[in-house]
Design a protein that fits this description.
Layout (H helix, E strand, L loop, with lengths): L28 E6 L12 H13 L4 E3 L82 H24 L3 E7 L6 H9 L7 H18 L4 E6 L2 H4 L4 H21 L4 E6 L10 H5 L6 E4 L20 E4 L15 H13 L4 E6 L6 H10 L6 H9 L6 E9 L16 E12 L3 E9 L11 E6 L2 E7 L1 H5 L5 E10 L3 E10 L3 E2 L1 E6 L2 E6 L9 E2 L15 H12 L4 H11 L8 E3 L1 E4 L7 H4 L4 H7 L8 H38 L4 H33 L3 H30 L18 E3 L6 E3 L4 E8 L6 E8 L6 E4 L1 E4 L2 E6 L6 E8 L6 E3 L8 E6 L4
Parallel strand pairs: 1-2, 1-8, 2-3, 3-4, 4-5, 6-7, 7-8, 18-19, 23-31
Antiparallel strand pairs: 9-10, 10-15, 10-16, 11-14, 11-17, 12-13, 12-15, 17-18, 20-21, 22-24, 24-28, 25-26, 25-29, 27-28, 29-30, 29-31
Helix pairs in contact: 1-2, 4-6, 8-9, 12-13, 16-17, 17-18
Length: 853
């Protein structure tokens, strides 16, 4: 219990686990689905990162690891999976013809990130990177993308070698592996052109099957694999799905299955995607695919939507639910979702799923959510009882969920009572209405006042549990601002309740009004609005609370004791349970993940969202033990970083307001004077506050994902905060911005020793190459690794050799013995700093793995 993160091992206490414990998993497959495309995720994982993270999965009692592959135009295809015919590959799986592919780098620039050399990074962050074109090691020499045919091949072949070693390690540990592509298959431009030169059309089903044969043969040779999954189109999440789109996907899957049966590779097929199936029928693939193909999907709305209910309609095959451990809009912020993980695991179990995986980018900051998901895959304990009560709650009169939306200026056509169509309740799941037993007539009144095209809002309607409207697209039926009524009757009421249920397909269900004509009574409700004509007002709109999740107090009490010690476990656990699922979000999707924007609130008002930070600060003096203090400090810095980010957003709003007033001045001389007097001081203040963001941010860097967060700030957030406003300010001043109004390059802070990749195991005979980052104001006087056979003999000193900037490396420890080591850095002035924090009393351990049996 209390596994800290997908890196290293935490051993904060001496209590032994219960021995002889026997358990049975609730899900056959349990694991993670790290997502590429951002530097915070596996794009920046090295061989050692894969080996380190895979080694942690069995300790979490997980046994699955899956990867998605983005196709061309994002901006390049990712090199995880190669696409091409069999003749363009060698017998060993190396490719002889390919196309440009890439993982994220500091010079690639997409998803809101701009190319920026790490040598230009601010506040000393450049010390953390040994090269300006930093990124995945498989890309080195080919950043931002390969420029030659040989380079194209080399990136694919390097990636295959990396994943071969990683997946061999996974197999040794009993972890099943999975890769895949999107369906319909995106055929890269160079491959299409090559086929065309051979007189072949990439859209021909026979050619598509031949391509899949090439993909499967190469995958079988390139790396050991247990599953290959097909991701349904991402657009099915956001837009309507047309019949021809469904046909294109099902035809593509048919070609893939035919290719699979011909090649007979040593892995199974499965589906995944942003949805389980199209909105017309979420269980469609269960009806058309072989039963030995599992089906799966991630939760919609970046995890805000619970597990797909359509899983309950799938029978006789594997089905895997994939909740979001974090979402990418807030990728630069901490997200705590222990309650959500428990809720999603509970739903996955009751829908009959036999797989439970979490999608994510980062690792350490997700420690609580990963641990909660791992635990809930084996034991759902007493907290599940609260969820069982929610599944069948007592019926309460009124709506379930929903928000108000009013459109008083819209002119409603085809309506005798246009006023009631000018308000709607959207994102509503149901209405429960007390009605006299017997037959009744139900009239449902709809209008589409918002969207201007078909396919943007699609849903079903049930009366008394019976499906009465399927795939209702109001705009497709009548257009915008037109009344659309449905009358049903007689509808039988036998228990005193009329149940009207709305099933979302695309976006949110919406209704304008409803009428129930029962024996001796007529009830009219103006949905989403006040009393109108003879219609009663609707119930109040849904509040801002998240969907109710199970309690988390028990989880956080165990987790806090393991991480901070028993002296502060109870108050720390109470704080984490209180903010779980309720943390403020100072970042959001702005062109890309984790962007920031000005906050119009005063900081006095916004600061109330961060009062929990001071509560946590007050616990610090009570924390005992070097390991506990290090872990406490990491979480405290993470909290303080978020708070500093929020204050920066508020001060940024002050700058943008002042800039607007200066730009409104027509006299150029006066405008320049005001820019110098008003805007320059505010910009200097912004830079000072950005420094207050970087101080705790740099203090949290401990793995590749957190290095990715640094890139996000440098190549994404700062562009809107300082770069574009700086260019505008220079124009207003009529001269370059002075140096003191630009972010400083130098590091000012305490010495930090960072081992970004913490291996916990080695193969027999393998030596460890330890990459160490030293963040300091001055070059250290001495830096070394001290290692020995575990628990035996004197430590051997191995110098840490400088690679570049603050990046150092040492290689040690070949042989067959288990090892332990620690890093010690002596600064020019002041006390030495060690990794891990408990060294030299307790070092980092490395266990040798025996041969596969």
């Amino acid at each position: 219990k209390g596994a800290e993160r997908l890196r290293g091992d935490a051993a904060p206490g001496l209590a032994l686990p219960r021995l002889g414990e026997v358990g049975r998993p609730l899900f056959a497959l349990r694991g993670i689905q790290p997502f590429h495309d951002f530097p915070e995720g596996p794009d920046w994982w090295s061989r050692d990162d894969y080996l380190a993270i895979l080694s942690q999965l069995p300790k979490l009692r997980m046994n699955f690891f899956g990867l998605h592959t983005y196709p061309e135009n994002a901006p390049n295809a990712e090199p995880t999976v190669w696409i091409g015919p069999e003749e363009d590959q060698a017998a060993d799986g190396s490719v002889t013809f390919s196309y440009p592919s890439s993982y994220m780098s500091t010079l690639r620039g997409n998803w809101g990130y701009r190319p920026r050399k790490t040598g230009d990074y601010a506040f000393g962050a450049s010390q953390l990177f040994e090269r300006d074109d930093f990124g995945a090691e498989v890309m080195w020499g080919h950043v931002p993308q390969p420029a030659t045919p040989a380079g194209n091949n080399e990136v694919f072949n390097r990636t295959a070698a990396l994943l071969r070693e990683a997946f061999d390690h996974a197999r040794r540990l009993g972890v099943q592996t999975c890769v895949g592509t999107e369906a319909p298959l995106t055929v890269p431009k160079l491959v299409r052109e090559r086929l065309k030169g051979q007189g072949k059309d990439a859209n021909d089903p026979a050619v598509k099957q031949a391509l899949y044969e090439g993909v499967f043969r190469r995958a079988a040779q390139a790396y050991p694999l247990d599953y290959y999954w097909f991701w349904t189109p991402e657009g099915w999440t956001w837009d309507g799905t047309k019949p021809e789109q469904i046909a294109a996907t099902t035809n593509d899957l048919a070609a893939a299955i035919a290719a699979y049966r011909k090649v007979r590779p040593p892995f199974k097929l499965a589906t995944c995607g942003w949805v389980l199936g199209p909105q017309q029928d979420r269980a469609l693939f269960d009806k058309i695919l072989p039963k030995d193909m599992p089906v799966s999907c991630i939760n919609r709305e970046v995890g805000k939507t619970p597990v797909e209910k359509g899983f309950a309609e799938v029978h006789g095959r594997g089905k895997w639910a994939i909740p979001w451990l974090e979402d990418d809009p807030a990728l630069t912020s901490m997200q705590l979702w222990v309650g959500r993980m428990r809720r999603d695991a509970f739903d996955a179990l009751r829908y009959g799923c036999d797989g439970l995986m979490g999608i994510h980018w980062r690792t350490r900051v997700l420690g609580p959510a990963v641990s909660a998901l791992a635990q809930a895959a084996w034991d759902q304990g007493q907290w599940a009882e609260s969820m069982r009560r929610q599944v069948a709650p007592p019926r309460v009169a009124g709506p379930v969920g929903g928000k108000y939306a009013a459109f008083p200026a819209n002119q409603i056509l085809d309506a005798r009572e246009p006023q009631v169509y000018q308000t709607v309740r959207y994102n509503v799941l149901a209405y429960h209405l007390p009605v006299t037993n017997g037959p009744c007539k139900v009239i449902l009144k709809f209008c589409e006042p918002h969207y201007k095209e078909a396919g943007k809002r699609v849903f079903d309607v049930k009366l008394q549990g019976v499906l009465v409207i399927t795939n209702l697209d109001i705009f497709a039926r009548v257009g915008q601002n037109r009344a659309l009524d449905f009358a049903f009757g007689p509808v039988a009421v036998t228990n005193g309740w009329l149940d009207i249920d709305f099933v979302p397909r695309v976006e949110y269900p919406s209704i304008a009004a409803l009428v129930v004509e029962a024996p001796g009574s007529v009830r009219k409700i103006d949905c989403g609005g006040p009393a109108c004509l003879d219609y009663a007002a609707d119930w109040p709109e849904e509040g801002k609370e998240q969907a109710v999740a199970p309690p988390t107090d028990d989880f956080y009490l165990d987790w806090a004791a393991a991480h901070f010690g028993r002296d502060v476990a109870a108050p720390a656990a109470a704080l984490f349970a209180r903010i779980d699922g309720r943390l403020p979000r100072p970042s959001d999707w702005i062109e890309g993940p984790g962007g920031i924007r000005p906050d119009a609130r005063s900081w006095t008002q916004a600061a109330r969202d961060y009062e929990f930070v001071e509560t946590f600060v007050a616990l610090e003096p009570r924390v005992r033990g070097a390991g506990n203090r290090e872990r406490f400090a990491w979480w405290l810095n993470t909290f303080q970083y978020m708070k500093a980010m929020a204050e920066l957003n508020c001060r940024w709003s002050d700058y943008t307001n002042a800039a607007g007033r200066v730009k409104a001045v027509t006299d150029e001389t006066q405008r320049r004077t005001l820019a110098r007097q008003n805007l320059l001081p505010l910009r200097r203040d912004l830079i000072g506050r950005l420094g207050r963001v970087y101080a705790p941010l740099l203090a949290t860097v401990s793995n590749p994902g957190e290095l990715g967060t640094i890139m996000n700030w440098e190549a994404h957030c700062q562009h809107d905060l300082l770069v574009k406003p700086g260019e505008e300010l220079a124009r207003l001043l009529g001269e370059p911005i002075p140096a003191d109004a630009q972010p400083p390059r130098d590091y000012r802070g305490p010495l930090r020793v960072i081992v970004p990749t913490v291996r916990s195991s080695l193969r027999a005979g393998e030596a460890l190459t330890l990459r160490t980052l030293i963040l300091s104001e001055q070059p250290p006087a001495e830096a070394a690794v001290y290692w020995r056979k575990m628990g035996r003999g004197a430590y051997v000193k191995a110098p840490l050799n400088r690679v570049a900037r603050g990046v150092h490396s040492a290689r040690f420890g070949g042989g067959d013995d288990d090892l332990e080591y620690y890093v010690k850095v002596v600064p020019a002035r002041g006390p030495a700093v060690s990794f891990p924090a408990t060294a030299p009393r307790v070092g980092q351990t490395l266990v040798r793995l025996g041969p596969v049996r």
